[in-house]
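Quarterly update from the structural biology core.
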Amino acid sequence: MRLKEKDFLYEAIIALEKNSDLRINFESSHDIFAKNDGNIIFENSVHLPVEIKKGVRKHHIKQLQEKYRENSHWILISDYLSKPLQEYLKENKIFYLDAVGNTYIRLPSLLLHIKGEPRKETPKSTSKLTQAEVRALFFLISNPDLLTYSYRKLEPILGVGVATLSKLFSFLKVKGFINPDVRPFSFENLEELKDFWIASYGETLKPRLLRGRFRFSKNGGSRSWETWELGKEVLWSGEAALARISDYYLPGEWEIYTSLPTIELIKRYRIIPDSEGAIGVYQKFWNEAANLSLNIPSLAPDLLIEADIKLGGKARASQIFRDRYAQHA
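Predicted structure, tokenized:
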């Protein structure tokens, strides 16, 4: 458990003790192979396995549900859970607690439901990025050498203005992802930054890139995709990309990034428009000037594949990506 997680864990316990008049203890798990981060223990001897996670998003919940599918009860502890996310957790019968005291636990011997506690005020700027900033940050994470370029040199490569770049770099410095005192610039807390970008991409940019959903024709079937000739114009991402580098993963959804006209895709691959189809076609949003490394022909950049897998919410796919995809990087 990282120190930042300990901070909001104990803040959450203190807030709950204050709101409930209960005495609560936390026992950390010392087994590196343990599934949960520890156990929370109430004075009436109720024990709950604990998952500690900062900055929770909906796609995290789907992964956690699969992780704890064999546990009838467990509790998620986070720094802050928005009202919509609290409702989502409650609807899915997931117990929760955040650092300001929002709580939901429903057991025969313990019932707690505290809601409406506001987020603590912070002087930091908003964490929400614009579409242009999400695109620019994608390029920078994928090719960190770009951090050494001037704003004027980055402008034509990233396709965003100097003002946007200045705002983005200021944001990264404030959030601790770039140390402003060390030159040349380089990223810090890279895994946390990737998680932040993935959540921002899923919320801000990806829905706007979707050009349509499709299904395979009856003649081709869902295995026909393996024989498609793609090239640089059509790239697989998400589960389909994972299946290309894993011998034991069969995709349930297929995601494509392309700049080809939709009618050309329909003719070339005989896919059929279907709002409920398993094939998602997205507009390619990067250019060759950004010099993104494509480790395997016909696959999207690594960060995008990772994002689409995590946003898909399938824990098994995420685990296989961590275990197998790095071997091909």
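The two ends are 28 Å apart (CA to CA).
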